[in-house]
UniProtKB/TrEMBL annotation:
Organism: Rhodoblastus acidophilus
Protein name per UniProt: Nitrogenase reductase
Cofactor: [4Fe-4S] cluster
GO molecular function, one term: metal ion binding
SUPFAM superfamilies, per database record: P-loop containing nucleoside triphosphate hydrolases
Pfam families referenced in this protein's UniProt entry, alphabetically: Fer4_NifH
Keywords: ATP-binding, Metal-binding, Nucleotide-binding
Length: 121
């Protein structure tokens, strides 16, 4: 509604890996549906928790680690993407659910149970 008047644009999506099935493919599909792109997929690494326990960033804690390199790559991609934003294409909850089902993240919806409480379903 206000996208054309505000001047704010979506530069792209960043996906923080959670180690779930097909999450990279899902993130790319979602970005495409929104008319955007996946800027970077940040792999999950326990070094993040080790740094957090010390109240440090990964770049401070382990500057030569692979994860620190991922963050540097992400920073460069975001910086180099300046001015390339788009107004995202809105999607409905049904479209989002279809995307999740398409990638096998969510089972096919049984329409007969929609809106029913646990004891009714």
């Amino acid at each position: 509604k206000y996208a054309n008047s505000g001047g704010v644009r979506l530069g792209g999506l960043v996906c923080n890996e959670r180690k779930t099935d097909k999450e990279y493919e899902l993130a790319e599909s979602l970005a495409g549906k929104l008319g955007s792109r996946l800027i970077h997929f940040v792999p999950r690494d326990n070094i993040v928790q080790h740094a957090e326990l010390r109240r440090m960033t990964v770049v401070e804690y382990a500057p030569d680690s692979k994860q620190a390199g991922e963050y540097r790559t992400l920073a460069n991609k975001v910086h180099n993407n300046a001015g390339n934003g788009t107004i995202p294409t809105p999607i409905t909850m049904d479209e989002l659910e279809d995307l999740l089902m398409e990638h096998g993240i969510m089972p096919t919806i049984d329409e007969t149970i929609v809106g029913k409480k646990a004891v009714e379903a």
